[in-house]
Amino acid sequence: MSRSYIHSLVWLALFAAGQTLLAQTTNRPPIALAAVKTWAYQLQDLTTARSVDALAESHYDLLVVEPSRTDWSSPENRRFDTPRMVRRLQVAPTGDGSHRRLVLAYLNVGEAEGWRWYWTWPQGWTKGRPRPPGLPAFIIHPDPDGWSGDFPVAFWDPTWKDILLAGTRTPPAPDRPYRSLMDEVLQSGFDGVYLDWVEAYDDRAIKQAARAAGVNPAREMVRLLGEIRDYGRRRNPNFIVIQQNAADLLDGHPDLLNAVDGIGQEDVWYSGAADSDWNNPKGHDQRTSASDTRDTLEQLHRFRAAGKPVFTVDYTVNDAAATYRRSRAEGFVPYCTRVSLSRLTTTPPPEFGLATP
Questions:
Q1: What are the pLDDT tens digits along the chain (357 aa)?
Q2: Strand 286-287 to strand 333-336: parallel, antiparallel, or no bridges (unpaired)?
Q3: How many CA atoms lie within 13 A of 66 on its CB side?
Q4: How far from 128 is each of 124, 125, 141, 187, 296, CA to CA, in Å?
Q5: Three-class SS string for the chain?
Q6: How many degrees, rounded to 5, is the angle at CA 119 between CA 108 and CA 105?
Q7: CA dihedral sign of residues 267, 90, 102, 239
Q8: What whole-number distance in Å separates Cα of residue 172 and Cα of residue 202?
Q9: How far apart are alpha carbons 239 and 227 in whole angstroms?
Q10: Which of 4, 116, 277, 337 has the smallest number of Cβ neighbours within 10 A?
Q11: Radius of gyration of the chain (CA)
Q12: Is residue 46 within 8 Å of 85, Cβ to Cβ?
């Protein structure tokens, strides 16, 4: 028997074993959201093989990632195979060995983003500059925290909701098979969504726009979250919705608990400056005031009392170990990283071993 023939047999056996393992892993049911013990969050630099490999080979029970092909700022992003990435990230087994990982799509519901496929309007509007002509009425003002290219919106506006949900005004195109942001999420196979800028309902300029339109912004935000959950569950009965921040939306709106499955909260103990790159020291370890931490914890425990998981993300490197302990002591699921969110953290949970440089 020739050596090459033996090598071929070995290769075929290894390939078959790998395919069997992949099938077994793929067939694992997703872990329940309430059973998640670790999670990670990455929004930037996802279209490289190195980034996808790092995420796929990590040991987190849940990942929140950017659905990159809706980012039309570069041809690479526009052509990115998001469904393939999602499938690869999902097949990883969780810590119990019996389930697969959950993968959620980041989705900004309270702001339009100037690099998305739907953006056909003037660019370059920043805080303090005159409003450029040609912007649709639902775009209210530039991001107040300094995130470039983000624009808070009148999220109750039918045009904005159409971009998010039904996409009746944006029929498919050869280079864009999805009609809406939610269609892209569902076509890509995500297990659910992680919704940013829910706090839009409390933005001063948006409140003024809501008064002019005769609507209650808090009520409209709860309604929108419910519509997103309903839209997702018509296609996937197990579709997950997690809101980020805005825990005080629960005040006076207990039906919020019917619209979301959990909450993510930034900056409980540490924040970072907006638009900071990975190596910017201002992008982490900016301590949250004790009073803000106390108020936030009080609000988050209302979600916990209602049986909703709480996921914290604190932008700390220097105090990560203690912050993991603090969050877990509250019954939360913590993650510590840098505000850039351009790679996996260098300070993973303690059970993952030593921090990387």
A1: 444 333 333 233 323 333 333 444 457 899 999 999 999 999 988 888 899 999 999 999 999 999 877 777 777 777 789 999 999 999 988 877 889 999 999 999 999 998 899 999 988 888 888 898 999 999 999 988 888 889 999 999 999 999 999 999 988 788 888 899 999 999 999 999 999 999 999 999 999 999 999 999 999 999 999 999 999 999 999 999 999 999 999 999 999 999 999 999 999 999 999 889 999 999 999 999 999 999 999 999 999 999 999 999 999 999 999 999 999 999 999 999 999 999 999 999 998 864 443
A2: unpaired
A3: 23
A4: 12, 9, 9, 39, 30
A5: CCHHHHHHHHHHHHHHHHHHHHHHHHCCCECCHHHCCCEEEECCCCCCHHHHHHHHCCCCCEEEECCHHHECCCHHHHCCCHHHHHHHHHCCECCCCCCECEEEEEEECCEEECCECCCCCCCCCCCCCCCCCCCCCCECCCCCCCCCCEEEECCCCHHHHHHHCCCCCCCCECCECCCCHHHHHHHHCCCEEEEECHHHHHCHHHHHHHHHHCCCHHHHHHHHHHHHHHHHHHHCCCCEEEEECCHHHHCCCCCHHHHCCEEEEECCCEECCCCCCCCCHHHCCEECCHHHHHHHHHHHHHHHHCCCCEEEEECCCCCHHHHHHHHHHCCCEEEECCCCCCCCCCCCCHHHCCCCC
A6: 30
A7: positive
A8: 34
A9: 12
A10: 4
A11: 21
A12: yes
Q: How far is CA 132 from CA 36, 121, 149, 337, 354, in A?
A: 45, 9, 14, 36, 50
Question: Can you read off the two tokens belonging to residue 190?
Answer: 């995500």
Say what the pLDDT of residue 1 is: 44
**Residue count of the chain:** 357
Q: How far is 160 from 158, CA to CA, in rounded Å?
A: 6
Q: To which residue do tokens 């045009």 refer?
A: 159
C-alpha closest to that of 152 among 111, 118, 119:
111
Q: Give me the domains of the chain, ranges plus CATH numbers.
A: 3-352 (3.20.20.70)
- pTM of the predicted structure, to 2 decimals: 0.90
Here the tokens at position 165 are 């949900």
Q: Kind of pairing, strands 262-266 and 39-42?
A: unpaired
